[in-house]
Design brief:
The complex is a heterodimer of chains A (412) and B (262). With 412 residues, chain A is mostly helical. Chain A contains 16 helices and 6 strands. Chain B contains 10 helices and 10 strands. In chain B, the strands form 2 sheets. Chain B has a 6-stranded mixed β-sheet, with helices on both faces. The chains are: A mainly alpha (412), B alpha/beta (262). The interface between A and B is large, with 35 and 50 residues.
Chain lengths: 412, 262
């Protein structure tokens, strides 16, 4: 037995050594050679290559050690997905879930009065991403249609408000449903040509769609005023009351709280409805789904429309919050960010996505010192997640029913 | 009585390959019809043409529901065929693996219910009543098929034989008048096959669902079917009762090859 372990460790050490050598070789030009242009000499920083070697050796060793352990864990639990994760157990336990919900709501209510306007602003942004994440989850998590151009619908909402205000003086509250409608229509327009596509192909087309939208906004000066954007968009009003910047921020924060609650309510109800089940069936098996009498076309259009609506709503709020829109706010990075929220939080899980949004939006704000490495950290987090917890922080869980002998049923 | 399913001169070409060549077939009400034939004979292609996965290149398909009018279904979409009352299972199981067993069957009720987005959000009385009926009906179907103890299990965790039965339950939930089973006994052990046989007979006798099945298990076919069709190289080479088929020289030739010595 111990002999087996010893050989395994020697193998892991050997591999780590080879990997370290490779890294030293690959990073040699960048890490060692530096041309000092001022004194016109080449500096050889030999110490750096040693650091790279030691560092990559240690990381590679730990990596193989951990993933090896994970593989053996899998073998001992034959039916891993039958066992609920810690998060699910905590959420399922009423004694823990109810007080937790209470604490969260009290915290949410007093937040703007305890913390500064800056913090409130960041929190409002995070809440916007919660709604965006939940919206994208309908398309990606439930219907299984990978959408990399989600930001286009977000932009549709924002520009709907900006343009309607600029041309017709339409107010925030009138623009809110119109923005949602515009995004939903755009969603259906995108869905129509991509009905036959799935997986990678769908991802590429939606990615292109998002970029095309941004490029149109950037270049069609007569329509969208190009890169300079539209400014002077009014903040949301409240019966014509004058508000200073502090009050306006607090007001917007509470608007976002309300929108979040509405979103969670609606998304939760949809999830366990006839339509919600059809979306999931579509993700699971397209052919079987149709063989069950489900109109694939209609379900796909519904998924895109339902998902985009939320982006449109948030888009209008975004325009009102920043009082300014320009195409630079709607890059692919935004789509990637929202998708990361869904993937990190856990596809199909509402709680997971809320947590994911808070982590991904709040952490970079509070870790400003590391802002240069933000994308690097993102990438690392995603890779680690995909290896060790591909189902996300909180995995989605299906509703269960209890059937009693007298013929009644209850939801659990 | 008019046949539930009438297939006339059905042809299906994939490029130059004639997968089906002018095939005729009838399924009569209350009967169990079987389609047999060697591997690659075109049986599944035939199913796929009837259920709208492929659009046939020639011929006609008609259905006559027990209390309805005759209708041509050549160009109908797959989901419309199911709505008309033909449900099917697949040769390689196509359940929804990450949904629970109950939810799998609830999907079958989709085409018989109508709740929309607004209903789902508002949960008005009609939607709630409909939802309850879906759950009740699905549970009953599962009880009948013997999966009532596993309703909350993820479908992927069911054993193989149970997954096949779940697929049948899901198809039955769509209220078909004709159930098309593509190799329902494939991969089953003798015990499971025996249970399957009882299940199919039960569906026919109690639920009044006529059955049309593709099967390789000859013992099952011979004991179950009222009428057997034999296909080879895309052509229908024989039809008749199980006794007639057993003695048919064409069939024996297709399965065993020609006796060169004689």
């Amino acid at each position: 037995m111990s002999n087996m372990y010893a050989t395994k460790y020697i193998e892991v050490l050997r591999q780590s050594f080879v990997i370290a050598l490779w890294f030293m070789f690959l990073t040699f030009p960048v890490m060692v050679i530096r041309v000092n242009t001022i004194e016109n000499v080449v500096e050889w920083r030999w110490m750096n290559i040693i650091y790279v070697g030691i560092g990559s050796f240690i990381i590679s060793f730990l990596w193989q050690h951990l993933s090896g352990r994970k593989a053996s864990d899998r073998k001992t639990i034959p039916n891993a997905d039958g066992i609920k994760s810690l998060g699910q157990r905590l959420l399922g336990e009423k004694r823990i879930a109810l007080p937790a919900a209470g604490i969260v709501s009290v915290f949410a209510l007093i937040f703007p009065f305890v913390f500064s306007i800056y913090q409130t602003n960041i929190m409002a942004t995070a809440l916007m991403y919660v709604v965006l994440g939940l919206g994208l989850n309908i398309v990606v998590g439930q219907a299984g249609l990978l959408n990399l151009g989600y930001v286009a619908f977000y932009a549709a909402g924002a520009y709907t408000y900006a343009l309607l205000h600029y041309h017709f003086g339409v107010g925030f509250w009138a623009a809110l449903p119109l923005g949602a409608l515009a995004a939903a229509v755009l969603g259906i327009l995108l869905a129509l040509p991509v009905l036959r596509l799935r997986g990678d192909y769908l991802a590429i087309v939606t990615l292109g769609f998002g970029e095309i939208t941004r490029i149109i906004l950037e270049n069609w000066n007569e329509f969208s005023f190009g890169p300079s954007g539209i400014s002077g968009i009014p903040r949301p009003g409240l019966f014509g009351i004058e508000m200073n910047i502090q009050e306006a921020t607090t007001y917007l924060y509470f608007l976002m709280i309300i929108l979040c609650i509405i979103t969670i309510f609606v998304v939760n109800r949809l999830q366990n409805s006839r339509i919600g089940r059809a979306l999931i069936a579509l993700r699971e098996d397209e052919i079987a789904c149709q063989a069950m009498g489900i109109n694939k076309t209609r379900v796909k259009l519904t998924a895109f429309a339902l998902g985009s609506t939320w982006a449109g709503l948030v888009g209008v709020i975004f325009a009102a919050k920043t009082t300014f829109v320009n195409p630079a706010s709607f890059t692919f990075l935004e789509s990637a960010m929202i998708l990361s929220i869904v993937v990190l939080g856990g596809m199909g899980s509402i709680t997971g996505i809320i947590i994911g949004a808070l982590i991904l939006i709040l952490l970079p704000e509070y870790l400003r010192a590391f802002s240069d490495y933000r994308m690097l950290l993102f990438g690392i987090i995603m890779v680690i997640m995909m290896i060790f917890r591909p189902q996300g922080i909180v995995s989605g869980i299906r509703r269960t029913y209890e059937f009693h002998l007298d013929g009644s049923e209850s939801k659990k | 009585m008019a046949p539930l399913l009438e297939v006339k001169q059905l042809s299906m070409n994939f490029g130059g390959l004639k997968a089906l060549d002018r095939v005729d077939l009838d399924c009569l009400p209350g009967e169990i019809t079987a389609l047999i034939g060697p591997n690659g004979a075109g049986k599944t292609t035939f199913f796929n043409c009837i259920t709208g996965i492929y659009a046939p290149t020639g011929g006609d398909i008609f259905i006559t529901p027990p209390d309805g009018v005759r209708e041509q279904i050549n160009d109908l979409n797959m989901y419309k065929v199911t709505q008309r009352g033909l449900a099917r299972t697949f040769q390689n199981i196509r359940i929804f693996p990450d949904m629970t067993v109950l939810e799998n069957v609830m999907i079958g009720r989709h085409c018989r219910t109508k709740a929309g987005i607004l209903g789902a959000i508002l949960r008005d009385r009609t939607t709630t009543a409909e939802e309850r009926a879906i759950v009740r009906r699905s549970y009953e179907t599962l009880e009948k098929i013997g999966l009532a103890d596993d309703v909350n299990m993820l479908a992927r965790n069911l054993p193989y034989g149970a997954q096949r039965r779940l697929e049948i339950a899901r198809a039955v939930a769509t209220d078909p008048f004709l159930l098309l089973l593509d190799e329902p006994a494939a991969g089953m052990n003798p015990q499971e096959t025996k249970e399957l046989e009882a299940l199919i007979v039960g569906l026919r006798d109690e639920r009044e669902i006529s059955i049309f099945l593709i099967e390789h298990d000859m013992r099952l076919v011979m004991s179950l079917s009222d009428r057997v069709y034999v296909m080879d190289y895309g052509e229908m080479i024989a039809r008749g009762t199980p006794q007639e088929i057993r003695k048919n020289p064409e069939v024996i030739k297709a399965y065993l090859g020609e006796d060169v010595g004689a």
